Amino acid sequence: MAHGPRYHVKPRRRRWGVTDYRKRLRLLKSKKPRLVIRKTLRHTLVQFAEYKEKGDHILTCASSKDLVSKYNWKHSTSNTSAAYLTGLIAGKKAKDLGIKECVLDIGRNVPATGGRLFASLKGVIDAGVICPHDESKLPSDDRIYGKHIDDKIMKDVEEIKKTVTGGK
What we know:
Elements: H1 12-15, H2 21-29, E1 34-39, E2 44-50, E3 57-63, H3 65-71, H4 80-97, E4 103-105, H5 116-127, H6 141-144, H7 151-165
Parallel strand pairs: 1-4
Antiparallel strand pairs: 1-2, 2-3
Helix pairs in contact: 4-5, 4-7
């Protein structure tokens, strides 16, 4: 192990590979709220975060767990449809708080075209929040509505979408 007067131990989150500080700094320079999307094996989490000196301040959030508890979702919470609806719920909450635009923060996740991360982004955009993005990365409507999984999911997605958006 290196030692000496010029040796500098890097921050813990950088050593562990959890935070990319260069990418984070570029996002913070925009001075807009960040749309933080994180995925686990079973759920998708969507948060709107604002930088504060003592630590990030979460303005609003939504989890795919909310689909089961509040919207009677009977399907998997780890698919593209659930990620889209989670983004739609978070976008609606953000719109109600007066958030008009944001920047996307996907952290260390791989930006796979048509994946759950971009399905959540599409949900936020459909709720009315402006977020710069590349249209080619967003999933197709067939994947968002779950046509590739089952016909029952399509009906449930449409019902929940109407409930969240108020029938629009």
